[in-house]
Amino acid sequence: xxxxxxxxxxxxxxxxxxxxxxxxxxxxxxxxxxxxxxxxxxxxxxxxxxxxxxxxxxxxxxxxxxxxxxxxxxxxxxxxxxxxxxxxxxxxxxxxxxxxxxxxxxxxxxxxxxxxxxxxxxxxxxxxxxxxxxxxxxxxxxxxxxxxxxxxxxxxxxxxxxxxxxxxxxxxxxxxxxxxxxxxxxxxxxxxxxxxxxxxxxxxxxxxxxxxxxxxxxxxxxxxxxxxxxxxxxxxxxxxxxxxxxxxxxxxxxxxx
Length: 257
Description:
The chain has 2 domains: 8-126, 2,3-Dihydroxybiphenyl 1,2-Dioxygenase, domain 1, CATH 3.10.180; 143-255, 2,3-Dihydroxybiphenyl 1,2-Dioxygenase, domain 1, CATH 3.10.180.10. 19% of the residues lie in helices and 43% in strands. It contains 5 helices and 16 strands. β3 and β4 form a beta hairpin. α1 packs antiparallel against α5 (213-222).
């Protein structure tokens, strides 16, 4: 892929029931998730498409995976120029390898890692020469904001800036909740980090853009999910919400009111 090093390039939902996930997210976000797996596929993996391009995929967790500790969640892929070099640098900086680097024919090279605080993510070098448009804060259905809830916000921010060339921008004082440190990827403000003792464990939370946040909140409830925070306005005038899908996976949306 031609995306710059450090750009989010793919989003993946790990789910036990891909058809239930399809019904929910198609209704709530406006995606089109594949109803079936392509013939000849060796795994149950279904593509997630917005109205104007691919955004990610749904990976079906098997019973054995769940018995060995896998659980439904959203994962973020960060594009890198060299997967093996990135894995080596991440481990040298205190991170760890969850799944060693491997190749998927015609897709690319991938590794699952975690940062020094334990938040998991993938690094990937795609096989295609075309740029991923999965992350585009201006387009409905695409990744718009990337929020890290962690045990040590300042150290985590420094780690990602060093590994991926991200840069710190404004730091927002959130009172008793501490500091919310915004960061830029390239020339776009695309996320923030915060120390959050109330989050179950360090993790990335991706916000997907929708056309209207209030109508999206109604669709969440109608489709069997829960709204756990919001809708609420944030600095800059945007609106956000946090929700749980029918399998209990936390997700987030952003958009106009």
